[in-house]
Amino acid sequence: MSARPPLLTLSHISHHFGAAPVLDDVSLAVRAGEVHALLGENGAGKTTLMRIATGAIAARDGSVAREAPVAMVHQHFTSIPAFTVAENLALAAGWPHGGPRGRDRAAELIARIGLPLDPTARVDGLSVQLRQRLEIAQALATSARVLLLDEPTAVLAPREVAELLSLVRRLAAEGAAIVLISHKLAEVLEVADTVTVLRAGRVTLHGPMAGQTATSLSEAMIGGAMPPREVTLPAPGGGEPLVRLGPPLVADAPLVLHAGDVVGIAAIEGNGQRDLLRAIAGHRALAGVEVEGTTGLVPEDRGLEGLIGGFTLTENLLLAEVRDGPAWLGWGALEERTATLLTRWDVRGGTPRSAARALSGGNQQKFILGRTLGQAPDVVVAEDPTRGLDVAATAEVHARLRTAAAEGACVVVHASDLDEVRSLATRLLVMHEGVVRELPRDTPRASVGDAMLGLPA
Amino acid sequence: MNTTVVSRRAAVPDLVLTLGAFLLGLALLLAFLSVAGFDAAAGLAALWRGAFGSRYALLSATLVPAAPLLLLGLAFALAARAGALNIGMEGQFAMGAIGATWVGLAVGGWSPLLAIPAVLAAGLVAGAAWIVVPVVLRWRFGVTEVISTLLLNFVAEAAVSWAVTGPLQEASRSYPQSDPIAMSARLPRLLPPDRVHLGFVVALAIAAVLWVILARHRLGFVWRAVGASPRAATVTGRLPVERVAATVLLLSGALAGLGGAIEVSGVSAALYQNLSPGYGFTAIAVALLGRLHPAGIVVAAILFGALQAGAGAMQRDAGIPAVAVHVVQAVVILVMLLATRRRG
Amino acid sequence: MSDDAILIGFGAATVRVATPLLLAALGETVSERGGVLNLGIEGAMLGGALGAAVGAAQGSAVVGLALAVAAGLVAALLLAAVSVWGRADQIIAGTAVTLAAVGVTGLVAQRTFGSAGAGLELATLQPVEVPLLGAIPVVGPVLFRQSLLTYLGYLLIPLTWWLLYRTRFGLELRASGEAPTSARAAGVAVRWRRTAGALLGGALAGLGGASLVLAQVGTFTEKMTAGRGFIAIAIVVLGRWHPGGVALAALLFGAATALQYLVQASGHGGVPWQLLLALPYLLALVALASAVGRARAPAGLARDDQEES
């Protein structure tokens, strides 16, 4: 295999945004038939490196050699929901149009890759798994032979992950060169031939996957031993009952969530977890959900739902309480309270009069958490609270949520990453097609995955 | 809309931008007039004479149209602050005028202390009533208020035409206009014989009230939050976004209707066709020039009042059609949109 | 008049008055598919009407049509410059474009035709009978004894469809209107596509204005388009952003307007004529209420191309 020439070679790449170095002398080569894992924590520079590889940005230093077209499959979907599969493929591939001839070419391509897609189907009717297949097909439609897959398994259930990984292997066997960006060690150990690990913009490990172990990889990623994933928490069920989930949400006995619980909800996108979370937070009605006490929500989309970017932080504090607040606004007192919140929650990079959009994502999230938890709600609902945050910010958000539970709140968390749910929660709920059931907290990962797909545990 | 939310601390909006945009609009109009072969210098001179050239020009010409422009500008800004676009002010103004005339004809025996409030209330109610259909269409069917308010302008025009040739036509039934409204229903002049009337003070008072509400009251904050981000207002603020939008649209319609009422009660004393020379659209320029801030809108309304007054003089003295002022309005709107658009 | 003659007269009038609406609405369909809601379409039509009148006053309908297209293009270019490239709010910018058109056409008309503009009488495009088709009973005189601009409208229905669904340009245009971010990721020059869509829309709106002057009223007056551009926008919604649907919706509005002639012809007194005048606008409101919910606007319509939807 090593006899084949590399299709993509990155040599001595260095890059910085402003004064902050992002990549420092990084080299990487991928050959046809090879699956190359690119590992690193959030902020290690993986995405920047891949954007340099596709030519989306130019490196400050170093060189890129592309022997074949390179395409990136992003984590967020780029297909157009109102278009058919054929139209999306035509758009990506540069075909004349998505009409009858486009449909034929799309069918041909889909058959060649072996994907279960209907060229005439509209994308907004497809499942998440199929939409992701379409993303891969779009990349291949550009006749790319180098595929950069950015965290492709984040949105998938374990069983779907297995299917995707076998597709990746097959594409490699047919001569593609694949870079798999991930931070999930088990997956890359299973599928990759070679590995490059980045930490803070530098290569800390590079070589064949053979001989690597989860421990060796995580040491390269994090530096030093991996922090314990499991954290000791008080036994569940101690506190006062606050949330009751009854039929039709549960198949048999109602589930009761208590003060002091950190309840993790695991589910694949589109199984009703969003409605459930919003119902527990009191934002909508859902049959079977009964909540006692006050609620607070940390919404999924910080920028669009949690904050008004153009408003000051003081105004954003007011936003959460204006509905039941006094008629006349005391700006002075509000600013003082905002200042206190910024100090207590260690929100950096802004004053009470700064626009919310001036803060970094991690600081925005700390502000939102501080605002929500500052109202001391009985039930805290957090939707994907660490999305896009770096390691330090993630750890801090987890700690704050655990503290809230320890102080007597019932914390309900959903994250798209199953490992995060498992590491954070004291109780584990799985939701499939609108039905919730509880699994023992020590249920093996694969069994949780099966439950997410509705299979018997 | 993309217009930057003016910080609550910015008591006086950037006057340099306001004046600059206005002067640029004027300059482009003059350039266009020259190219088109009109006597631009004579036009400018007439414009100045008509707007600020004398005590009469200021107090009997400029400040007279400034009053409805101020009310309509506030009407637009109020809705725009909350993310709704009322482009039907021309129609609400017309309906306010019909309502005011109808009541004004009927209150002959009343004291002015009752008759005038009754006439103004009729304008408020008629204006709000005229926007009920767009509000319902938006709320129940998701139809954007932009098109529905716009279409109703033409229906209102037909309604005025019907009123002045039908139920409200003057006694002799020969002219398309109403009889004069009762003397007791007419707004008094502030500085007789100059024509500026109490309606201007009413409009100023409403601007002050709105200013306080926007800066200090829960309601104003709720409006701004709904306008800045309906999603964050719904999720984080748990605010009833659609109900807020409906409320501001009704208030906006009411203010525009009040504009029609003060025009009848303070200026025309009767209902005519084409009572408004496009105030409903000029007011969009007024609101944007004032950066959706009540204080700024007062300044902008006087500037556009001057332009309206000057345009009359321009047509009389220099033979330049009064519609030319629309060019200035358009330039002002476009410049203000570009200058205050959201960046990023 | 016999009932048949009245019916044929009504049908022919429907198609005649639907023509400006059809042309403008097809143009607006293209523009909106690209994500540009053009409230300046009213101004583009008005500019087209004036252009046609100026050309016709010099004795040339062809020059008139060229001027009409040019005027529509200028109006659309202004909107595209400010809202697509300048990223300003499309709705307010479009309103400003219409205001500018009212002012400019008023000035130019005054300059060209003098204050006696009201008495202006222009040669109109006479109806041309299509051989064979024009001889079909009822259908012939209704559909095929019309001006050339109406036939252009007929042709543009399939052409617009072909452009949107069978060309690379149409695919990229629709992508720019649905999901500008994704379109850009696929290498589409979103702003250029949007600009092109808006310009096509402007040109057709200009032609629509021209047909109002040349094939309908034969004169130019200030603000003579009287909201037809805004009705065209409602037609696009009712026609579900699809050329075929738009054509049918345009006919419906043509019929609502032509009803005035029918009522006059059949001598129904009692109904205030202002009600008939208001009918198309009221119909547009009903159409919007009934169409929304069934149809879906392009997801990026009236949104900035950087905005997340």
Can you characterise this structure?
Chain A is of the alpha/beta class and 457 residues long. Chain A has 2 domains: 217 residues, P-loop containing nucleotide triphosphate hydrolases (Rossmann fold), CATH 3.40.50; 212 residues, P-loop containing nucleotide triphosphate hydrolases (Rossmann fold). Chain A is 34% helix and 23% strand. Chain A has 15 helices and 18 strands. In chain A, the strands form 4 sheets. Chain A has a 6-stranded mixed sheet, with helices on both faces. A 6-stranded mixed sheet of chain A has the order 14-15-16-12-17-18, sandwiched between helices. Chain A is globular, with a radius of gyration of 24 Å. The model of chain A has no long low-confidence stretch (mean pLDDT 87). Chain B is mainly α. In chain B, helix 1 crosses helix 14 and helix 8 crosses helix 9. The two termini of chain B are 15 Å apart. With 309 residues, chain C is mainly α. Chain C contains 12 helices and 2 strands. Chain C has a two-stranded antiparallel ribbon with strand order 1-2. The longest helix of chain C has 31 residues. Chains in contact: A-B, A-C, B-C. The interface between B and C is large, with 55 and 46 residues.
Features:
heterotrimer; A: 457 residues; alpha/beta; Rossmann fold; six-stranded mixed beta sheet; 18 strands; globular; C: 309 residues; mainly alpha; ABC transporter involved in vitamin B12 uptake, BtuC; 12 helices; 71% helix; 1% strand
Give the strand order of the largest sheet of chain A, numbering strands 1, 2, ... along the chain. Answer: 5-6-7-3-8-9
CATH architectural category of chain C: Orthogonal Bundle
User: Please, how many helices of chain C?
Assistant: 12
Mean pLDDT level of chain A: 87
CATH homologous superfamily of the largest domain in chain A?
P-loop containing nucleotide triphosphate hydrolases
Q: Count helical runs of chain A.
A: 15
Task: State Rg of chain C.
Answer: 19 Å
Q: How much strand content do the residues of chain A show?
A: 15-25%
Biggest beta-sheet profile of chain C: 2 strands, antiparallel
Structural domains of chain A: how many: 2
- Indicate the structural class of chain A: alpha/beta
Q: Which consecutive residue ranges of chain A, at least 5 long each, have pLDDT under 50?
A: none
Amount of helix of chain A: 25-40%
**N-to-C span of chain A:** 40 Å
Give the largest interface.
Answer: B-C, 55 and 46 residues
Low-confidence parts of chain C: none
Under CATH at level 1, the class of the largest domain in chain A stands as Alpha Beta
Oligomer: heterotrimer
| H-E string of chain C | HHHHEHEHHHHHHH
